[in-house]
User: What shape does this take?
Amino acid sequence: MKAIICTKPGNLNFINLPEPKLTPGHAILKIKRINICGTDLHAFEGTQPYFNYPRILGHELAGELVALDDVEGFTIGESVTIIPYFNCNACLACRSGKPNCCANIKVCGVHIDGGMAEYYAVPSYSLVHSMGIQTEDLAMVEPLAIGAHGIRRAGVKEGEFVIVMGAGPIGLGTIEFARLAGARVIVLDVNAKRLAFAKEHMGAEFTINALHPGNTEAVREITRGDMASVVIDATGSQKAINNGLNFLGHGGTYVLIGLQKGDLVFSHPEFHKRETTLMSSRNATREDFDHVMSVIREGLIHPTKYISETVPFEQAIPAFAEWTGAPNDLIKLAIQL
Assistant: This one.
């Protein structure tokens, strides 16, 4: 079978590998759809934490189930997606019902080889039924679950102001789930086209250019002096993360979905006087996947809006390389097999 491997930053190659063989407790998928994530782009650029080369990328997947072991309720030939964070089921986090932050986690395409291939073997416990969702939408469930998990972590309440910093794919999903939770959403980004997209397609009530020198005052005016109850970073930018506290109201919650390699630097007095709740939001859980699939089936979210371009697997490498230097008003690249 063919697979695409990232041998070092800036270098992708097709390779031929044997098709995976079924082993106990595993299932095999014939991959039908691969969406490119920021993680994949960062790995290609050489800026992704927790990453070693060479690596087969890809974790936003949809496919056809062709073999399975030790799992009930699934049938050969059905469409599935996966929860691509393989956990140990033994550490404190797993025992506490938080497999998304397992101490020994293996994320597809990051810690272990991913699914940018014609066939892919996964633990059977990671399988997720399609529930009638078409393949094009099914591959979007995982990135949308990231945003859904962040909103659930924040405990967003109806009517409160929520700021989402960053209108990339993860930020856009976060915006949608904040809106569905009843929040009044303010979006900050440096790209005017993405801000317009967030307002037109994602239901953001307010948008602010993060480069504008008056952005803090703009938030103050929108919130009538209170600032936001929840600030969520989806940029992965150290500068944005370190500045995000400025938009947070007293008693508020700051959630970091975005990830970067540097240090968090806050003014302790500013942090302390707000009695700030600071939390990270890593990956997602099956509960989040179920929630995403429910709102897709209800027609409350339309995943295909996120797809800027779809290319066949044979053309994936040049398309991928072009996307790393493409204007960042593009949202997501999809690969079809």
